[in-house]
Records
---
Amino acid sequence: MTSKCILVVDDDDAIREVAQTSLELVGGHEVITADCGCDGLARAREDQPDAILLDVMIPDLDGPATFERLQADPATRHIPVILLTAKLQASDHARFAELGMRAVLPKPFDPITLSHEVGQILKWSR
Amino acid sequence: MWQTRQSTKPPRASVLTSQGPGGTVIRRLLPTVVGIMIAVAFLRWTGAHQGLYGDTVGLLLMTTVTISVITGLLWYFAGRLDRDDARRRSAELQLERRSRYFDLSHDLVCTAGHDGVFTQVNAAWTQTLGWSEEELCSRPFTEFVHPDDRQTTEQETAGLTQGGVTVDFLNRYATKDGDWRWLDWKAVAVPEDGVIYASARDVTARKAAEAAEETSRAETRQILETAHDAFVAIDADGMITDWNPQAEVVFGWSRREALNRELAELIVPEAQRDAHRRGIAHFLATGEGPVLGQRIELTALHRDGRELPVELTISALQTERGHTFNAFLRDISERVAANDLLERQRRQMSQAQGVGQFGSWEWDISANTTEWSDELYRIYGLVPDGEPVTFEDFIALVHPDDRAAVQEQIRTAYESCEPFFFDHRITRPDGEVRVLQARGEVVTGEDGTPLRMLGTGQDITARHDTERAKDEFVSIVSHELRTPLTSIRGSLGLLAGGVLAASPEKAERMLKIAVDSTDRLVRLINDLLDIERINSGTTEIERRPCDAEQLVQDAADAMDAAAAEAGVTLHVSSARVAVWADPDRVAQTLTNLLSNAIKFSPRGGRVWLAVEEREGELRFSVRDEGRGIPVDKLELVFERFQQVDSSDARDKGGTGLGLAICRSIVEQHGGRIWVQSVAGLGSTFTFTLPTGLLGAEDRSQPAVPYRPRILICDDDPGVREVTGALLEQQGYEVISAASGREAITFAKAKSPNAILLDIFMPGMSGWDTALALSQSPDTRDIPIVIMSGLPADLTTPSPVVVIDWIGKPVDEKTLFEALDRALARQRTIGRVLVVEDDLDLASVLLAVFERHGVEAVQARSGTEAVALCRDLQPDMLVLDVGLPGGDGFSVVDWLRQNERMRNVPIVVYTARDLSAAERRRLDMGRTRFMTKGTVTLEHFERDVLDFLGAVAPRAEAVAGDQ
């Protein structure tokens, strides 16, 4: 898989670190991080990542709100977003799906296969 | 010339003008006679017929006389003729008149002979009976009489013929067409003439009327006799004139007893008698009777004195005899009782609905009317005024988003006739939204068409909200749990996947992440369980007498390290106040608050912990100089998983449950907790605990008090008594010895925790005693406090461990201080027994003790533990409760029995949660409880060593003193 730039937005330090390590060491991608919605928007605009892994429960703007802003901004509209969530309720999943994300990945995730899954969802060629 | 003389007879007109025959004659003849006379006279005068008369005068005279005589004669006879005629005519007229009256009379007038035959009958006879006059007069009249009346008729007739008079005699006469008619007779006889004059009146109608009336009366009588209702009639004076059998039953008076008694006296309750009488009087006077003619309910009196409710209708009648009042009365006691029951049931139903917060409704489909119970109105926010609620009204109250669904449900139920059950929201008129649980059933007719629908609506808003809150809680919790799990899974996955072989630092990072996240998870789960247990009451708060100062100090000590690390200074102020509380839980609360305060304080900041007594309660407050809490979150922070800023929890390692747990604990103690804060300047968390040693209901068994045993040795009984009393008052257990020898015996047998020793005693002096004690292994370690009148002489090298020297008379303060010191340094902890069957864990624990220079021995079972206790007499035990072969409980039981070991300090370190009862069983006074898993090893180490320190100084320290 070609190396991509992925933005990970999650307020939990440990999760950010684990995700980053996974994507870097297993997937060989470049990873940038943000720990809240606003930061996430800023980084997305500036660094134009190839994909965004977005947590739902983040401070300031939550995941869905951040996603809306990303879609609204022409500079970031094109960046595909995958939602990461620990929320299990089917109703929540349905809501997220309606918003137009590429996919919803549950937490906990398997760090070994994370990159592969992301690649599959976003159809990155090997 | 002609003069008429008025005769005295009935007025008679002049003959001349009379219409009678005389008149006719005179009017005809007289002119003729006069004519002839004039003719003769003329002839004579003109003719000279001489002869008869002589001269003219004579002629004239002759003529006049002749004329007069003839006229006179004519007149007389005419008159007589006329008179006769008139008389005859008159008689005829009278006869005719009489005859007319005779026939005109309705009455049957007749005459009869004594032979019993009618001689004359008037027209009425024919009209009435049909017989002709001939028929009636042709036979004896008795033949027309009814056979049953013949005898009386004959008797009556016979009486008449003898000169009697008949009045009001009745008999029946036959009519021609075979019927009978009643005749009422008046008759008189003229025996000399042999005539009976009689007049009879047809009274058939009257008789019939009488008979009908009699029948009618008899029928009425029968009705009254058999009526279900009581019938009572009274006259204008209020006296009873009629009383039917039912009245006898209802009121208990027989007819005979009731008649002619005053009604008021009999059946009207005393209180209403006047009103009753006045009512009658009023009606008689004014004709106004407002109660007449309508159904009214009154209370009446039974003969036996009880009152009964009756329903009655009164009517007034005016007859020739005066006014009567009739009434039909009915005893409605049963109906009233039934109504009362119904009313009571209705009220109960209404109350039940009120309590259960559900209302009921019924829809009559064909009539399209609905009926709602009062509670249903209230649930919908309407006034229960009985205003009918149409289907449209109802739908308008349903929440707009649910309307379609509700209508669909009802329609389906109607069509399928199946019961329904669903929830929906309503919007009350005031705008409030409530959630209702609706249930209903359809009642069908025989042919299956729906006739009625009935159902209930229950306000389940509270339950709904609770369920929703619970769902949300579950959602949040699962989220919270998954977050650290994500880190664990992720980090360990990477490690396991071999990806990090090339980067050991990264690997170490991942391990640390795994460990920290695990810890976090453990904390979270513990907190969750804790709060659930506290809230559901599964964990009993074990309250015992505590010292507020102690609690505060302990908490501060526990947080010292953390404060130092964060660069925060802790300021503590306290008061020595007794409080009835669970010291562990209060400590937990204080530690929590302190921990938060330290967390949110800037480096170099200060945190204050204070206790103050106010208005009968104890206020603990923790103040920090952190960034504060916004006003709208002051209440919210005590909720579960609420953080001022969601980033806080993750960064600072909190679980979001700390304050919620604090609140639960405080509330379980009957106190309150709140926070005051100014954003940017800091916050003050305050909680209260009720003061006093005993909470109102919380007199659960006080924990086993730690009663140190003190041996007093003094030859003076007074001293022994006074000092002994003083010690016992403070909770010590006292043994007295009167001599040194006794003291030694007791010390060996009872192992006191300290000895108070007098110096000057006969026989063995205090010094000698002390020496003897020091020589026995059983007693050498017991601290001694010398009581002596002599000034302290510690310079003399003494072979024994003398802790203190207090002068006599014993000053209380000095005494207790000395004892405290003595007990604190009672023995060195040289040896700890670890009772734990898990070898790995045991080795870990042993290592901990070893590290601090404390000898530690392991027992793997209860039995082994007991044996080792007996042999080694350890100074402290670390006990796992769940052991094979005699569990921890029996170890403790054994220890309690053992004289030497009964006060040994224990750390109960166990994996499972203990119930309150279990804890009591294990509590020997100096007992610490720690749960594996809740407590990290470091924590354990720290705690146990604190405990060790509290219980006894470390071996080195003691050695150093000596």
---
Amino acid sequence: MGKIDRVGRIRTLHGDMGVWHKYTFGLAGERFFRALAEKGVLLASRCEACRKTYLPPKVYCPACFAELTVWAELPPRGYVETYTFLYEDLEENRLTEPVAVAFITFPGVDGGLVHRLGEVRPEEVCSGLEVEAVLAAERSGGLQDILYFRPSRE
Amino acid sequence: MKPENARGVPLKDEDLKTGKVLTTEWRVKADYAWDCGIAIGRYLDGLKEGKIMATRCRRCRRTVVPPRVFCEWCFKPMDEWVEVRDTGRVNTFSVSFYSWDMTPLEKPEVPAIVEIDGCSPGVGFMHLLGEVGDNLEEILRRVKVGMKVRAVWKPADQRTGAITDILYFKPEEE
């Protein structure tokens, strides 16, 4: 039997696993993204018994399992709860500019959204920063309809 | 208090295609390179040259394909390489109306385990049978367990050193 003495000739098989998926948003997600696409608003659902307002919305209250029938439209303005900076993309390529990603919460709402921050210098980013969504001109119903959040101008 | 559609929402393929419901898509980048190891590496090199290479264990008097670097009976290194023939016999087969990626097929495929001539009894590998008919009736009439088959190779300049360098096995006259 041969030893490995010609490392350059080690044979490898190359392939690409055809792993892909199409995800539907569900009843509440569907309403949320349609409202975002059509009206540019954020939709939340409320449980009066538990005094909780869910964003992203839910069809059931996770605390008491009641069906949620109270829905509210909110302007896409909130606050940076916490944030981080990304220096690499999903394929580990170095980014020319770091990207700020934040968890954004909204007044009177439980939950929030994770999204990119834009039009902001890195040193400006802080917890509590008031931000507003910059919406895409052409919206298709998805989180990409919000391009990013930027410091509020109002 | 039962919500509308509490038992779920039936969705058809066309509902997704026509945008009746919103969707998000993701294609995972899952490129890979698999190191074939010593034995399979040499096996694939052999296929590129139009040869089926096997290994032999002299203690167990066994010749195996695909080749391995050690004998799984006695755990000793395999003693030698031998070229076996590109003919064999059908050990078992199936008729599949789906390709490997679940695409429905007009013309069914016939995957089979082929025992390779020159190897120990029962030793061989899985491949496709070809020239055995276009529909189930023809295939079942022509393909029999134990029938003799011969490899049909890709033209030499198109071989890449892969099991697909053999296109399929076709029936061989006894």
---
Amino acid sequence: MSTDTSKRKAINWPLVILGLAVMVAGAVVAHFALEPRQSASLPEDLQATYLPQGKPISGLQLQDHNQAPFNESRFKDKWSFLFFGFTNCPDVCPTTMLVMKSVWDKLPEAARQAPAPEMIFVSVDPQRDSLDKLKQYVTYYHPAFLGITGELDQIDTLTRQLGVLYGFEDPNAEGNYTVNHSSQIILVDPQGNMRAVFSAPHVTDEIVKSFIAIRNYYNG
Amino acid sequence: MKLLHRACIVSLFAIFATTVHASESLQVSDAWIPEAPPVASVMAGYLAIHNPGAQDVTISAVRSADFASVEMHETRMQDGMARMVRQDKLVIPAGKTVMFERGGLHLMLMQPQRSFRMGDRIRFELVTSAGAVTFSAVVKAASLDGDKHDHHHHH
């Protein structure tokens, strides 16, 4: 009896391993083959304007808050969220920065896998927003966030390509002025193309959901 | 001297009495200020202003010793841009509540005169057609959740 048992075991082990291997292979195939099929189309209720062709961005000569040059090559190999504003803005800009922070916090681990998306605040008020001030402002909301700005004509090079508007109001008696600006969040794909627009009012959960759908669709 | 003293007290009572009878003071609730980056030279104030009286009340100024100046502003979407529109005067209609909240009316608080911490209470004064109204606003964490308060709205 005992020899029979050991013989049976000797025969069964390779079968068990083969069986497990088939299951693992099946799971791997299912994971890689099925996931892109799930995202073959974008949801019809996508809460974003998606640009099917994408729109290449070029000719940027801006600076980031660490004094490093910022051109379109900085968009490569990661998704970027861009929002335009100025630090002397009490209502819209802090609210949108909180939306960006909340989007970041709510991103599932898979969507945050390296490279993580870049959350960028573009100041359209370089006269008052020095790179240092910009750094302190942006990193207050999240240490990973990036502030960029530059000469007005360089900012225009970016805003014109993205369809973002801004304009300065006349200063008051104390010399204070406000800046009117578009409040949409722009999504740039890892090849540096403008890919989607999230219009205000921003609902954090919708942005997260739309981004994941767009990212899956783009990768698929 | 004693007579003069009494006259003063009487006239003081008269002043108070007139104020109370003229129109009812505005009531401020849920006043709060989102904490801002220390470099921010402007902040926002949000609140609810209720007029319990039978007459409209006009706010002509807002003051606070903790800011160089305070203005009432409204964020408006215009030509695809968010615009800040200053309100030199604001009427709170009789029996109505006007909300100052994100993306709408807000107090624009310019040049903080000191740094604030969460939980700080900041004193304000509304200058209105029904007299001055003082209130304090609490500094809260800069979070979208800060907008949720105990105020009951009709849904």
